[in-house]
Amino acid sequence: MANDASAASPSPQVHGISVSPLTQCAHWNSLLDIIAIKHFCCNKFYACISCHDECESHCSGVWPRSRRDEKAVLCGACKHILTVDEYMDSGSRCTSCKSGFNPGCENHWGLYFEMDDAGAGKV
């Protein structure tokens, strides 16, 4: 059978504590908390770093700056997966469906992504 580009690919499993279909969890569950991040250390999508730390026995690792082209941020609304660069440049909106993301998540980027010395993500 030919590859049908219009067929939806299955969305990845999102791990965590009490994860909703929009990827909200026990720790973060506002209407804007709708992303899950694939963790560099284990290649699994988690609703948040607290979920990762409660569910895994290893320490979380950050995405190196050199791997910002990796598809690692899942929009819980439409299931589109953004690259790290796309997410960081998105203005807290999905690049596909335009759903709003929690702008406060930017304060935690250093837990997921390698940052420059000043704390800013982009160089």
Give an account of the 3D structure.
The protein has 123 residues and is mainly beta. It has helices at residues 49-55, 84-88, and strands spanning 14-15, 35-38, 45-46, 71-75, 81-83. A hairpin with a 6-residue loop joins strand 2 and strand 3. The chain starts with 13 loop residues before the first strand and ends in a 35-residue tail after the last helix. Residues 1-6 have low confidence and may be disordered. This is Zinc finger CHY domain-containing protein. One of its GO terms (biological process) is protein import into mitochondrial intermembrane space.
Topology (SSEs and partners):
Elements: E1 14-15, E2 35-38, E3 45-46, H1 49-55, E4 71-75, E5 81-83, H2 84-88
Parallel strand pairs: 1-3
Antiparallel strand pairs: 2-3, 2-4, 4-5
Pfam family, one: zf-CHY
Organism: Setomelanomma holmii
Domain CHY-type: 18-99
Reported for the largest beta sheet, the result is: 5 strands, mixed
Helix/strand order, N-terminal first: EEEHEEH
Mean pLDDT: 91
β-sheet strand percentage: 5-15%
Number of helices: 2
Number of domains: 1
State the gist of this model.
With 123 residues, this protein is mainly beta.
Which key phrases capture this entry?
single chain, 123 residues, mainly beta, five-stranded mixed sheet, 2 helices, 5 strands, 10% helix, globular
